[in-house]
Amino acid sequence: MAVRKVLVAVDGSPNSLKAVDVAASICEKYGAELVVLHVIQQPAYIFGAPAVSPSVLKDYYDTARREGERFVSEAVSKAERYRVSVRAEILERAPSVVEAITQYAENNSVELIVVGTRGLTGFKKLLMGSVASGVVSHAHCSVLVVR
Predict the structure, then answer these.
(1) Residue whose C-alpha is closest to residue 145's, from 28, 26, 23, 37
(2) Nearest Cα to Cα of residue 11 among 144, 130, 115
(3) Top CATH class, 5-146
(4) Upper half-sphere CA count for residue 36 (Cβ side, 13 Å)
(5) CA atoms of 9 and 102, how far apart (whole Å)
(6) How far apart are CA 72 and CA 67, in angstroms?
(7) What is the pLDDT of residue 46?
(8) What is the mean pLDDT of the segment spanning 28-33?
């Protein structure tokens, strides 16, 4: 299996940081490029509320961007220890995290997506859905789920 580009999706969870280690070690082994991706989802209330103030949205995206930059920075630092080529991307205003990850991977010739699972079970998983299972279902390439 020749892998030239690996994408790891990070959300700040411990399992997404484990996924960074796994993805970076794969890149180290195959000499592949690593892309660290964080997705900022469009808030659901943007469509349900009669009038969401622009300042509320700006505050939401500013906070989400700072948080995402922290997640990505930590992941890049971790990956650089493996001496691999790594770059970071933050996608904003995505209606769907799963769609953003899978479309980015397809549009950028990613050959492997690595994601961590939050380990949700039962009712929480039913309510929140699962990014990992959505990526597995919709990706054009192989997906490795790290627990």
Answers:
(1) 23
(2) 115
(3) alpha beta
(4) 29
(5) 10
(6) 9
(7) 63
(8) 97
